[in-house]
Amino acid sequence: MKVLVVGSNGQVGQRLIQLLNENNDHTVRAMVRKQEQAEVYEKQGIEAVLADLEGTVDSIAEAAKGCDVIVFAAGSGGKTGYDKTLLIDLDGAGKTIEAAEKAGIDRFIMVSAIQANNRENWHDNILPYYAAKHYADRVLESSVLNYTIIRPGILLNEAGTGKVAAAENIAYGSIPRDDVALAIVASLNEKNTYRRAFDLISGEDSVADALKKI
Ligand code: NAP
Predict the structure, then answer these.
(1) Which of the 8 DSSP states describes residue 86?
(2) Spatial distance between the Cα atoms of 51 and 35, rounded to a whole number of angstroms
(3) E strands in the chain
(4) 119: domain range?
(5) How far is the CA of 176 from the centre of ligand 1 (A)?
(6) Ligand 1 within 6 A of 10 CB?
(7) Is 176 in the pocket of ligand 1 (CB under 6 A)?
């Protein structure tokens, strides 16, 4: 599959690009918003395209044209205000979903957040972030796209173990970004993840086994 990664300069995004670049079953196009970020990838022989989630749906659709799947791994991050949470985590995700429809791309993988579907478990100090993730996921679920919504626990930069737990309802947990990237790649062709949403944390199973057990 040819995969467009939205948020390719991010911490999960960078790991995902490297995994996909090494994978013989897939090819990758990195969507970034700055020329210098594109050049870093192009120097490694990785295709890159410029587009901004604050831009138009058409510009995102153009960036995605020719791909078979879009992975949304972008986010406004913790250092910006809630205006950007709304514009990137919610509207940026919504525009990317519209762009997939416009570009005729059926498969869509969303990197959401653990328990985004369950208001009772939202952290009090980041309620607007959870609200943005929640509604972005709901837009995707009500689309006709063949989606997979991965809701990882707290993201860690320690080395991945390749061992995870995936289920529709895991109250809390954490996971290395390496393992989130592995789970995204493994989900691409895993039919058990089609039109499904699940929480993902560190666990006991290989990624492939965990995705089959959801
Ligand atoms: P990250 O390192 O902050 O990366 C986010 C990426 O989004 C950055 O590369 C950023 O681009 C890009 N982005 C921001 N605004 C953009 C725009 N207007 N147009 C295009 N790209 C834009 O995030 P991460 O740590 O890899 O997290 C990946 C995902 O996991 C996010 O959706 C996050 O919400 C979610 N998540 C995080 C946690 C956690 O514990 N942190 C837990 C669960 C889920 P620049 O590099 O140019 O700034």
Answers:
(1) I
(2) 10
(3) 2-6, 27-32, 47-50, 69-72, 107-111, 146-152, 154-156, 163-167, 174-176, 196-202, 205-206
(4) 2-212
(5) 15
(6) yes
(7) no
CB 175 within 8 A of CB 200: yes
- Say if ligand 1 is within 6 A of residue 204 CB: no
- 129 labelled catalytic: yes
Write down the pTM of the prediction.
Answer: 0.99
- Which amino acid is present at 115? Q
CA of 212 to the centre of ligand 1 (A): 27
Residue for token pair 């078979």: 68
Instruction: Report the CATH number that the domain containing residue 186 is assigned in CATH.
Output: 3.40.50.720
Our count of domains for the chain comes to 1
33 within ligand 1 shell (Cβ under 6 A): yes
Distance between CA atoms of 150 and 187, rounded to whole angstroms? 9
3-state secondary structure of 3: strand
Each residue's pLDDT, cut to its tens digit, for the chain (214 residues) gives 999 999 999 999 999 999 999 999 999 999 999 999 999 999 999 999 999 999 999 999 999 999 999 999 999 998 999 999 999 999 999 999 999 999 999 999 999 999 999 999 999 999 999 999 999 999 999 999 999 999 999 999 999 999 999 999 999 999 999 999 999 999 999 999 999 999 999 999 999 999 999 9
Hey, whose CA ends up nearest to atom 32 of ligand 1?
Answer: 75
